[in-house]
Design brief:
CATH architecture of the largest domain: 2-Layer Sandwich
Structural class: alpha+beta
Largest sheet: 5 strands, mixed
Bound molecules: FE2/S2 (inorganic) cluster
Oligomer: single chain
CATH class of the largest domain: Alpha Beta
Shape: globular
Number of helices: 14
Strand order of the largest sheet: 2-1-5-3-4
Strand content: 15-25%
């Protein structure tokens, strides 16, 4: 039995094996612009394609359902249109790692064909089917409006230098990265490679992703309805201000992936960005090398979304109490390096590490530990002074000031020589979204034994485009050496978001 359909203008025939359209596109036809950020959860939008002109998520579309129909991926989009989207996203800084971008471009292409004059509200509604962890949405909406505008002259190598300073690992910037060609590990894997997936504490190898998942007996985890808990008790004392946080998922869109051929190094799992520090210790490259040697052929190693949630590092929970004079105590989940991280911005705070059952935590995750300490101290000071504006300097040397201006967030950033203001602004808006989203709605439910119960990409609490306040960014002129500015923005926006929420003592404030 076979299934015939049109893919990007070509008739294709594939075996009828009960696979999804995503499995067929990526793993049988080699269409790697279609990304897998959560399959088979159907919740991130990275695998969006057009089926007879309608946007569909391919990971929950059985390929049988497209029999006799026409499927369009980014590769099959009219070249002029594809180019205009790539230019628009590049010009606005609307793509950072680029993993979510092909799916969003396909959503936009489908929308534009029907509603070329769609307004911001309509565009944000269309984005509700997608997740972007990097950009904070605003620049993506701007890219919708910039479609077809003539590209300005720009030094994209300089832009990539600024992106690397903000992201912490090498980044590509430009139309190719926007089209999903940012060098993601699995995209370069050979079609005939074996595939390894996680099964309990081990890896199961199959001839295809579908076969490996079946052999692993994967049962999808869900989102829980249980309440978030705050696992660390407050330090004893009489404090002007207290805060308790919980585990937070970094929520990067490209789940951990690598592949290797025998006797060859593994493809880097850092992708186009490094996932806010969360992938620096990913085991997948080492596993790929071991399995390629063992099987004497190329092996892809792929974590599902659920694997990434279970195994990837989280932001460590804290519980702290401070006074307006800058003294206080912060208790934090035991994490190598976190005491030093907190001490770097808050030398007068006492830091206690606490051993608690729970997922792996890492100080590599953006601002882990020091941001919580800096926010506590800055907000205690602002409350004492009756100020609604907060300035925070990051250990990197970057400084950001944030305040609410009505319902929008106003940010000023000094990050040395901006090098490329479009990229710096994009990272600052993304960091503002991450700070706002963290304080208002992010957290993972972890039970008393330390097991995570929120296992879907939608259960992390990432704020949607339509719920994100507008952000304005002013970049300080400077010819000083360039330093990371977005981490300071992340901290300053978290602080003003908390201040605006009347400093409710547990995050997220809107549970
Ligand atoms: S991979 Fe299909 S929606 Fe996430
Ligand atoms: S650019 Fe959207 S997830 Fe990275």
């Amino acid at each position: 039995m076979t299934i015939e359909f049109e893919c990007d203008g070509t008739q294709v025939v594939v075996p009828d094996q009960g696979h999804t359209l995503l499995e067929v596109l990526r793993d049988e036809l080699g269409v790697r612009s279609v990304k897998d950020g959560c399959s088979p959860q159907g919740q991130c939008g990275c695998c969006t394609v057009l089926v007879d002109g309608q946007a569909r998520v391919a990971c929950v579309t059985p390929v049988r359902r497209v029999r006799g129909r026409s499927v369009t991926t980014l590769a099959g989009l009219d070249a002029d249109e594809r180019n205009k989207w790539a230019e628009a996203f590049t010009a606005c800084g609307a793509s950072q790692c680029g993993f979510c971008t092909p799916g969003i471009i396909m959503r936009f292409a489908g929308l534009r064909a029907k509603e070329p004059d769609a307004d911001t509200e309509r565009v944000e509604r269309a984005l509700a089917a997608h997740l972007c962890r990097c950009t904070g949405w605003q620049t993506i909406v701007e890219a919708w409006d910039a479609f077809g505008a003539a590209p300005a002259d720009r030094d994209l190598e300089a832009a990539a230098r600024r992106a690397e300073i903000e992201g912490g690992v090498a980044q590509q910037v430009g139309p190719e990265a926007t089209l999903g060609e940012g060098g993601f590990a699995d995209d370069g894997s050979p079609l005939d490679a074996k595939v390894a997936v996680r099964a309990g504490d081990d890896w199961v190898v199959g001839d295809s992703l579908a076969a490996a998942r079946e052999a692993a007996g994967k049962v999808q985890g869900r989102r829980t309805t249980a309440e978030l808990n705050h696992p660390i008790g407050l330090p004893d004392g009489d404090w002007d201000l207290t805060l308790q946080t919980t585990w937070v998922e970094p929520g990067y869109l490209e789940t951990d992936a690598s592949w290797a051929a025998p006797e060859q190094p593994a493809a880097s799992s850092l992708g186009n960005g490094g996932a806010f520090g969360a992938k620096l210790d990913s085991p997948v490259g080492e596993v790929a090398v071991q399995l390629a040697t063992q099987h004497a052929q190329p092996v892809r190693v792929l974590m599902s979304r659920e694997d990434t949630v279970r195994l990837g590092p989280k932001r460590p929970p804290v519980a702290g109490g401070v006074n307006a004079d800058g003294t206080g105590t912060i208790r934090v989940a035991a994490t190598p390096g976190v005491v030093e991280a907190i001490g770097s911005v808050a030398p007068n705070l006492t830091v206690e590490e606490v051993a608690i059952p729970g997922p792996n935590t890492s100080v590599d995750i953006r601002g882990a530990g020091w941001v919580e300490a800096a926010v506590l101290l800055a907000v205690a000071r602002a409350k004492a002074e009756g100020s609604g504006t907060i300035s925070i300097s990051a250990p990197s040397g970057g400084t950001a000031t944030a305040a609410f201006d009505g319902d929008s967030i106003r940010v000023t950033v000094d990050a040395g020589d901006p090098i490329d203001p479009i990229i710096l602004r994009s990272y600052c808006i993304g960091a503002a979204h991450m700070g706002y989203s963290w304080v208002t709605s992010e957290g993972l439910v972890v039970d008393d034994e330390g097991h995570i119960h929120d296992l879907t990409v939608r259960s992390f609490g990432i704020v949607r485009a339509s719920d994100m306040p507008p952000v304005t960014v002013e970049i300080a002129e400077s010819s000083e050496p360039s330093v990371n500015g977005s981490d300071a923005v992340f901290a300053a926006v978290a602080a003003v978001t908390w201040l605006r929420a009347d400093c409710l003592p547990t995050w997220p404030v809107a549970q």
